[in-house]
Write a structure and sequence with these properties.
By secondary structure, the chain is of the alpha+beta class. It has a single domain, classed as Nuclear Transport Factor 2, Chain: A, CATH 3.10.450.40. The protein contains 2 helices and 5 strands; from the N terminus they run ββααβββ. A 3-stranded antiparallel sheet has the order 3-4-5, with helices on one face. Strands 1-2 form a two-stranded antiparallel ribbon. The protein is globular, with a radius of gyration of 16 Å. The two termini are 28 Å apart. The relative contact order is 0.16.
């Protein structure tokens, strides 16, 4: 099963109760990878030589109009396509009415289990759709 250091929604490292760095795996890691991909402007990370990490969601901040709800799901799908463990079922987005510079994205997905994870009781492929809300 894939494992990584846990980060908060603000991008800070998370510490466990005993003071060690916290980790995450499974669905939490999938959510974390999604959040990172959507919050980083596409092509801005120095070590991403292919310039494919990140998204163009930031380009829609402060905008409004009928095309906004049609464009953001396309941008989100493009950003999350490299995450093989995720099958996206539906994406909805709306601009936060209290803060027009913030977009709320609701992603409905199922988790695809890789061959090495099949024995884990924590994940059940096809056990139903999960939803996550990411504020960008």
């Amino acid at each position: 099963m894939a494992f990584d250091l846990a980060i908060s929604h603000e991008g800070d490292l998370v510490f466990s109760a005993n003071g060690d760095l916290a980790g995450c795996s499974g669905d939490r890691l999938l959510r974390q990878r999604s959040m990172v991909r959507l919050k980083i402007p596409r092509g801005s990370w120095l070590f991403d030589k292919s310039k494919t990490l990140g998204s163009d969601v930031y380009r829609y901040m402060g905008r409004s109009g009928p095309n906004l709800t049609a464009q953001i799901p396309l941008v989100v799908r493009q950003a999350l396509r490299p995450i093989e463990e995720m099958e996206i079922l539906n994406i909805e987005s709306e601009v936060n009415p209290e803060n027009e510079r913030q977009v709320e994205i609701l992603i409905e997905y199922t988790y695809r289990i890789s061959p090495g994870e099949a024995a884990s009781p924590l994940l059940a492929e096809g056990s139903g759709a999960e939803k996550m809300v990411i504020r960008v």
